[in-house]
Amino acid sequence: MPAPGAGLVSDEIVLEVRELSVGFVRRDGSINRVVHEVSLALERGKILGLAGESGCGKSTTALAALGYRPPGSRILGGASMLDGVNLLELPATRLRGVGASGWPTWPRAPRSPSTPP
Ligand SMILES: Nc1ncnc2c1ncn2[C@@H]1O[C@H](COP(=O)(O)OP(=O)(O)O)[C@@H](O)[C@H]1O
Ligand SMILES: [Mg+2]
Question: Which of 15, 29, 34, 38 is 20–30 Å from 23 (CA)?
């Protein structure tokens, strides 16, 4: 007899982040690299936590992996694959479509429009 919950969790990878590097542009135009070649995989039905001291890059990693690009941020390398699509290469308009079709929530700056203008 299968254990309770068996079949609900699989090792299917939903999102795969490969060697993601992210930086922010400084006032002098140089780049402050804050995420260095991070790789991780989100498996369906499982929870993955990012732990580390304040300012180590947890939020920047998670937001960049979902394709969100805060003003001044730069993707310096890597990929974030969802259903065979690299979210880091999608224009913002296409990202909204990805959110509508598959993601239960989507990061968005406060008071920014919820639909494309
Ligand atoms: N919008 C931003 N502009 C410039 N630097 C930023 C911005 N957001 C975060 N940073 C810098 O990137 C680094 C990582 O920040 P963050 O990802 O917020 O860390 P954590 O979530 O682990 O506390 C920090 O040095 C922070 O100052
Ligand atoms: Mg944070």
Answer: 15
Ligand 1: residue of 26, 38, 60 to mutate (most ligand atoms within 8 A of CB) is: 60
In a domain, 109, yes or no: no
What pLDDT score was predicted for residue 117?
45
What is the number of structural domains in the chain? Answer: 1
pLDDT at residue 83, rounded to an integer: 87
107 within some domain: no
58 lines ligand 1 (CB under 6 A): yes
Q: Hey, which residues does 20 pair with through a beta bridge?
A: 38
- The three-state secondary structure class of 17 is strand
Ligand 1: does its nearest atom lie under 6 Å from the Cβ of 21?
A: no
- Residue 59 is assigned to a structural domain of this protein: yes
Residue nearest to atom 16 of ligand 1 (CA): 57
Please check whether residue 16 is in contact with residue 38, taking contact to mean a CB–CB distance below 8 angstroms.
Answer: no
φ and ψ of 107, to 5 deg: -65, 140
Q: Which domain holds residue 92?
A: 13-45+53-101
Q: What is the pLDDT of residue 106?
A: 52
Which pLDDT score is estimated for 7? 55
